Automatic annotation (TrEMBL):
Record bears the keyword Membrane: no
Top-level taxon of the source organism: Bacteria
Name of the coding gene: fpr
Protein name: ferredoxin--NADP(+) reductase
Family annotation (InterPro entries): FAD-bd_FR_type, FNR_bac, FNR_nucleotide-bd, FNR_type-1, OxRdtase_FAD/NAD-bd, Riboflavin_synthase-like_b-brl
Species the sequence originates in: Roseimaritima ulvae
E.C. number(s) listed in UniProt: 1.18.1.2
Keywords: Nucleotide-binding, Oxidoreductase
Record carries keyword Oxidoreductase: yes
Length: 322
């Protein structure tokens, strides 16, 4: 599955020259949850600009860099051989520092990213993934590009100290919620902070132990993980069989509110949705309605709103991945 190119790629000396020209940050730590999921801590050469929890930034690597195998075969056009591929990633948060103390994003001198390795396109004729097969070849000490602009509107605007926050995600969509939760806890938020994340397997929750520790320390913080492919999800004979756990069904049944231990009412709850568009239920203009309702539709049915007004309790915010 090695890459092929339309003309000779830069040799080793030129590759290093390109890195020196374009790269401006270093990986200082990599933690692998499993072979396709990792946390990367990246320290830019320049001071990190001020940003809000929930925002994102683009990472870049040269098309000349090698790609992890196995991954979908890639043909690099000649015009890209000496250019960068860039992708935007939400900034996550360590939540606990090296001394096991609460740490928000602006308490550390690095940026943390929670990233899934995508080895091949999801569609038969889709383009080969360009960034993550290269990124997952890197380790501590390796360099890459971090763009200077940290942006995004998926932030905590309008949240009051006693409001409830419901942070719903799929997979690595949890990243901005880690940043939000750490910021709120550090700033003394009094209302419930509720994280609900779905994944295929329990090993897909890289922050699970950190969240459990935070739940022991903060009575208003709760993190719930739901799976869809563990034995108890797919084997009706399993003694703890629960079926596939999708957040839409958990919310509609009232079970999510029970597990959260609080009323999830638009009167006092802000909802944040991040991850799979099917979970969110996002419909671009002119698109047909989703085959099954996403959280946007379900929440709107019970009084939550999504509009361009300044956000208050009862407002839905979302950030869709891919």
């Amino acid at each position: 599955m090695a890459s092929s190119v339309e003309e000779s790629p830069p040799d080793a000396e030129e590759q290093q020259q390109l890195r020196n020209r374009h790269y401006n940050a270093q990986i200082i730590r990599r933690v692998d949850a499993h072979e396709n999921l990792a946390i990367f801590r990246v320290r830019p050469d320049a001071p990190i600009p001020s940003f809000q929890a929930g925002q994102y930034v683009a990472l870049g690597l040269g098309y000349w860099e090698s790609r992890i195998q196995p991954s979908q075969a890639e043909t690099v056009p000649a015009k890209k051989l000496r250019k960068l591929v860039r992708r935007a990633y939400s900034i996550s948060c360590p939540m606990l520092d090296d001394k096991n103390q609460l740490a928000a994003c602006d308490d550390v001198d690095y940026l943390e990213f929670y990233i899934t390795l995508v080895r091949e396109a999801g569609e038969p004729d889709g383009k080969p993934p360009a960034l993550t097969p290269r990124l997952f070849q890197l380790g501590e000490g390796d360099r890459l590009r971090v763009e200077s602009n940290i942006v995004g509107r998926y932030v905590l605007e309008g949240v009051q100290p006693d409001d409830t926050l419901l942070l719903i995600a799929t997979g690595t969509g949890e990243a901005p919620h880690n940043a939000m939760a750490a910021r709120l806890l550090r700033d003394g938020h009094r209302g419930p902070i509720l994280m609900a994340t779905t994944g295929r397997y329990i090993g897909d929750f890289a922050y699970r132990e950190i969240h459990q520790e935070l739940m022991r320390r903060y009575s208003n913080f709760r993190s719930l993980n739901f799976t869809t492919r563990e034995p108890q999800n797919v084997d009706p004979e399993h003694p703890q069989y629960v079926g596939k756990q999708y957040i839409q069904e958990l919310f509609q049944s009232g079970h999510l509110a029970e597990l959260c231990g609080t009323d999830l009412s638009p009167k006092n709850t802000h909802v944040f949705l991040c991850g799979n568009p099917a979970m969110i239920g996002y419909m671009p203009p002119g698109a047909p309605p989703p085959k099954s309702p996403g959280m946007l539709q379900i929440l709107q049915q019970v009084g939550f709103v999504h509009n361009d007004e300044p956000p208050t309790a009862g407002h839905i915010r979302f950030e869709k991945y891919w």
